[in-house]
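note to self — DONT lose this again. spent like an hour looking for the file last time. sequence + predicted structure for the chain T wanted, 279 res
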Amino acid sequence: MKDKRTLTYTIENSTATTVGEWLAAHQFPRKTMKDLFSAKGVRLDGRICTAKTRLSQGMVLEILPLKERIDHDPIEMPLVIAYEDEDILIVDKPSGITMNSKGQVSLANGVAHYFKVHKIYGKVRFLNRLDRDTSGLVVVAKHGLAQHYYQLQMDDNRLEKWYRATVKGRVEQSQGVLKLPIRKSIDGIHQEVHPEGAMTKTEYEVLSYDESQDTTEACIRLWTGKTHQIRVTMAYIGHPLVHDPLYADAQEVGKSFALRAYRLVCYHMRTGQKIVVEV
């Protein structure tokens, strides 16, 4: 039975003369392709081929993702699937669960169980990560080529990550872009704005202000992916997330802070069509 993850391409309008040249021109990772050729996972017109096999127009190239062992213990749990295709799975992560912490049941265990049940023979590859108490959309690549392809979209900001947050106080500017250097603080737990940190970019737009609670609801887009980026950035400008025990009030431990990854935009790796997922 043909693996549903198999990538199929018809060679058209290409100046490449060999399979290797064509793959390089289409940004396939060298190491992954080396492993696939070794596993006889690349075929041209139905026949096993090598990087040096010559191409001609109209030929059909097939790439069969490597079959791997699932790398986390499968544990059944209710998963909310927001989107799925041959290459990625987008899960709506609940608050209160970690991504893949050792010694405790995590989202990775639930995804591993889903992979096992649906016969997806691959490692659990998270393309984005959320804090334990942040809920929302998490992208899982079903194979190494998908991980590479969507990582390229993250690197050039074609993959968009949007959040909704409730912060303390009234945010006076209706919108803004915050560019701040962030690094891990000396206590090893907090992150902090510091001149020696990695530069981050956070964009926000105010949605509403609740006068009775003195809180602002905002829509936030992350252009970079630093740990605790939204929490640190909003606290730095004087508007920490409500119930944030690290950056707002240490007495808030045990409460979920109001942060949700509600929207994700990317482009299908096979068709190039825009994918918009909202929860």
